Structures are given as C-alpha cells and as structure tokens.
C-alpha cells in the first residue's frame, strides 16, 4: 500500500538537512515528510534528527526515509510512485555549490573565472530527471528545484516540464537585508540574480559591479552597497540562510496557504524576484511601477553578459568569459547545446570536469 506524503525532500546533504530540520522546527500544521537518498546511514540519521527536532519544538511534523539512488534511470519515477508527494523539494546534485569556495585545480579555476553556470549541466541532471518523472506521472506535484535555480529552472521549463521555483539566492539577500535593518520581510522587495551574491562575500570597500535592486516601503534604494555596508556573506554557500529561505514556501504549498516572499527561478524565469503564492500558483509580486518585462530583462542581462542563456526553444548558449574559458578546454562544449541533449552533454561535461580536477 502506498503511503502518500505532503513533502518529499530528495538528497541527504547539508542543504537538504537544513530544509528538513527547519520544516521540523517551524511547521504549525501537520506535515508528513519523506527524505529520499542513497546513503542509508545518513538517511536514517536525518530522519531521526528531524523527528527529534519536531519533538523538541512541539511541531506536528513527522518524517520517514526512502532509500533510492537518483542516478539510476528509473529512480525518480519509483520515488514518486512510492510516496505520492504533494511537493517535491529536489536538493540532490552531482555538483555541489561548495565549488565556489574550492581552489587548487583547473575545474574550480574555470568556475571562478566563468561563473557558476559552468556547473549548470551537472546541476540540471537530477532535477531534470525528477521533473520528467513528475510530468510522466500525470500527478499535480509542485517541484521546488534547489540546484542552481536561476539558470536550471529555465532548462527544466524549456524541456516542457513545470517548476514552481528554487530556494536561496535572491531570498538570501532579501533576508539579510531585512534582518540588517530589522524590518518585516513584507516591507522589502528585491530583484537579484545569483551573481549579485558575490560582491557581498567581499569586504565593503571591494564591492563592485551591478548591485541588486532593492525597494523598502515602495521606495527604491539608490545606493545598495552603501545602504548595506555591514552585510557580509561567508565565502562558502550560506546554507543556514538559503536552505531556510524556501521552507515557508514549501509549507504553504503543502498546506494550501497563501504566502509572499522572494524566490529564484519562479516558473522557469531567469534570476530572482519578489513573488506571491495564491491558490497554489506562484506569480511575480513586483514593486509599483516596475513592468514585468523590465524585471525579467534586468535579470536576463547577467547571463547574457557572462553565463548560460536558455532560449524558449530550448537552445542553451554560453556567453562572455564562461564561453571563452570553456572554449580553451573544449570548443565543442563551448558551442552550447539543446536541452533535449542534456544527458549526452552531461557525460561530456563530466569528462571535462574530471580531467580538469586532476590538474
């Protein structure tokens, strides 16, 4: 007999753990959760710890585990069939975001020079498989993709599948800015691409480049770097904020509640935006007098200058420094690809990554 669940979190790494632990500590309505992964010992511990945290905080959340290797071709479909989730939070990846803080090999050097979009194919692999399995199942399952959503969500939608949004990135900045000014989160709205995070990892005196756009109480902040001088992120991924940032949205989707906040890659759009959830649908919730097309164009400009642009027809092309860095190692990969060829491109990209990691 199939035992359905409200939320399925795929992955057992630090990011997935943060999500599960925060669901356990904040749920105000009953939530049935499943944690899916291939590492049995780690999986069992996450289930034990999550249920313990729910008990500590007196929250009505309950978790169980499902052992599954998402790299196996039939695994996503089996995972869905055995759990019948309402929401899938896809947090498993063959390329962790920790690469941004890695040094000492040619692959991390390429990522540092060309940007995280060098990892987009690897980040998209499992998430695209899960999205395909959701479509094939015919079930109304909300997908939250945690793997590089600013770009990967566009790959998913261009492949013909639906994705609600991601976690982190724009939501990191909106949270730290609201926290720094001690204001309620509904008073602040941001447009922010993942590339806007890097300056806030540097010292205030060293910040440069186009900053995020920020509105407080409907007024746009003219000097964002000056306004938030004291805000500084860690060099490595800020999982303590990014993993937590999507939990209110996940719980709202699972419990059919309204919600307002920030999210990257909503409905496959590039970059991050203020959003509103109503009746299970996520829409942009832009500041007054900011046209929808202008907001999307602002976010799109980052990847158009340096990164990976995904066209509506499924063509993905590398641009700027990333294109040049890739071409130095593989002219064929630098030419880009069609999203329908993702599996084959992943094998070539993985071979390049392994070769560069040995250097």
Automatic annotation (TrEMBL):
<protein>
    <recommendedName>
        <fullName>Saccharopine dehydrogenase NADP binding domain-containing protein</fullName>
    </recommendedName>
</protein>
């Amino acid at each position: 007999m199939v035992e359905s669940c409200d939320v399925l979190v795929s992955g057992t790494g630090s990011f997935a753990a943060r999500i599960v632990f925060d669901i356990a500590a904040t749920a105000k309505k009953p939530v049935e959760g499943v944690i899916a992964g291939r590492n049995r010992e780690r999986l069992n511990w996450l289930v034990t710890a999550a249920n313990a945290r729910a008990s500590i905080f007196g929250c009505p959340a309950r978790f169980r585990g499902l052992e599954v290797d998402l790299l196996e071709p039939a695994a996503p479909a089996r995972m869905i069939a055995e759990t019948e989730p309402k929401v899938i939070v896809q947090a498993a990846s063959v390329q962790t975001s920790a690469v941004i803080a890695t040094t000492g090999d040619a692959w991390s050097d390429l990522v540092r020079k060309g940007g995280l979009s060098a990892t987009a194919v690897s980040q998209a692999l499992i998430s695209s498989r899960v999205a395909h399995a959701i479509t094939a199942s015919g079930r109304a399952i909300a997908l939250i993709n945690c793997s590089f959503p600013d770009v990967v969500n566009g790959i998913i939608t261009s492949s013909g599948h639906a994705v609600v949004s991601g976690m982190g990135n724009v939501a990191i900045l909106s949270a730290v800015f609201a926290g720094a000014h001690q204001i309620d989160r509904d008073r602040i709205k941001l447009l922010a691409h993942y590339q806007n995070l890097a300056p806030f990892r540097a010292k205030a005196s060293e910040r440069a480049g186009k900053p995020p756009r920020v509105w407080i109480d409907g007024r746009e902040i003219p000097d964002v770097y000056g306004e938030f001088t004291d805000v500084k992120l860690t060099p490595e991924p800020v999982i303590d904020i990014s993993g937590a940032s999507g939990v209110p949205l996940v719980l709202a989707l699972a419990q059919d509640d309204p919600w307002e906040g920030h999210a990257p890659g909503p409905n496959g759009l590039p970059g991050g935006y203020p959003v509103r959830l109503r009746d299970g649908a996520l829409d942009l919730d832009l500041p007054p007098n900011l046209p929808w097309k202008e907001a999307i164009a602002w976010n799109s400009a980052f990847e158009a200058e340096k990164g990976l642009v995904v066209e509506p027809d499924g063509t993905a092309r590398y641009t700027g420094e990333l294109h040049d860095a890739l071409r130095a190692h593989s002219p064929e990969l630098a030419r880009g690809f069609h999203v329908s060829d993702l599996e084959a491109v992943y094998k070539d990209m993985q071979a390049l990554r392994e070769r560069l990691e040995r250097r």
